[in-house]
Design goal:
It contains eight helices and 19 strands. With 336 residues, the protein is of the alpha/beta class. It has a nine-stranded mixed sheet with strand order 2-1-19-18-14-3-12-13-17. It is globular and about 60 Å long.
């Protein structure tokens, strides 16, 4: 299966630079897998699209201020991508060639770092030193890692965060959830739609580009996830009673599919490197709510697996012709 099968051309003016205000004003494409029908709604129409037997599952991971700027003494940029141990992180670095093994990095009077390993893929393992709480330090010192395609964005860091974000750890937002507002949650509750939360800390596994021609040779970076006993029990109960499990975002999909066997979830915490592409046998998710993804991305491969490559290609072409907004701050689709 070739990466070229998941490519498409997107006009630059369709890349959303800021979210809609309020967020639920974004467009929502409704895709029916059985009929192939495509409808066009607004995101605030979601309660009317779902029935009371629908169950929404969200990723409650919170984006940390993962971009740091330091000196060696030359200026360097560090992007935290995954916590390995206390104060030890896998990082992407610019310029990487200046950050050799053993290089000391100074960020400010309260934080320094040292390169303790250079990985084969060019990433660095950095051990940070501070007498203060590391999370509080980077919250004050760091910058929200907005995606590189949002150049010149006036978006605030709070806009690149779901309103229900709770657990620190992501270096990119689970963007399907950015459309939800308090008002929308209230309307969903009135409809009788149940909501549950799992956690996956978004890292390189989600946004790392595929660099091989045959996608089956792509190796996903692992990401930490968790689904607790109570949530697994409630979702299993809902599934058994015939309710539709709707994964809000591809990261939620990966939690559910990593935790399911024979149609049943097991409470888990750990690492997942699950790679979902056409041919995958789905285990738990019944429907997916997601944004429009980058060409050749693993996320586009995931939704192509769920809805079929032909239907997804049709949906993306339709979205482009109708000037939908793409990527993190863009519009959404729900695949039924």
């Amino acid at each position: 299966m070739r990466i070229s099968e998941f490519d498409y051309n997107l006009p630059n003016n369709l890349i959303a630079k800021e979210p809609k205000n309020p967020r639920h004003l974004s467009n929502l494409m409704v895709i029916d897998r059985k009929s192939g029908e495509i409808k066009h709604k607004k995101f605030f129409n979601l309660p009317g699209i779902l029935d009371k037997n629908s169950v929404l599952v969200f990723n409650d991971s919170k984006v940390i201020k993962a971009r740091l700027y330091g000196k060696i003494p030359a200026k360097v940029e560090i992007l935290l991508t995954k916590q390995l141990k206390k104060n030890i992180w896998e990082c992407l670095c610019k310029p990487g060639k200046k950050l050799k093994l053993g290089t000391d990095i100074n960020f400010n009077k309260d934080l320094s770092g040292k390169v303790i390993k250079i990985n084969e893929d060019g990433s660095r393992m950095i051990k940070f030193s501070t007498k203060k709480d590391f999370e509080k330090i980077i919250e004050k010192l760091g910058h929200t890692p907005l995606p590189p395609y949002i150049k010149g964005s006036k978006a605030k860091s709070s806009q690149y965060q779901t309103i229900y974000a709770k657990k620190n750890g992501s270096v990119a937002a689970p963007t399907a959830g950015l459309h939800f507002t308090k008002k929308l949650f209230s309307n969903l509750k009135k409809k009788g739609v149940k909501t549950y939360f799992v956690t996956l800390h978004v890292g390189r596994g989600t946004f790392e580009p595929v660099k091989v021609d045959d996608i089956r040779e792509h190796k996903m970076h692992s990401e930490w996830f968790s689904i607790d006993k109570k949530t697994a029990k409630e979702l299993n109960k809902a599934k058994l009673s015939g309710k539709k499990i709707i994964a809000v975002g591809t990261t939620t999909v990966r939690v559910l599919e990593s935790s399911a066997k024979n149609g049943k979830l097991t409470p888990k915490s750990g690492e997942t490197d699950i790679f979902i592409y056409p041919g995958y046998k789905w285990r738990f998710a019944d429907q997916i709510l997601t944004n429009f993804h980058l060409p050749k991305s693993t996320l586009l491969m995931l939704v192509s697996s769920f809805a079929g490559k032909t239907l997804i290609k049709k949906a993306y072409n339709t979205a482009i012709s109708k000037k939908y907004r793409f990527y993190s701050f863009g519009d959404a689709m729900i695949i039924l």
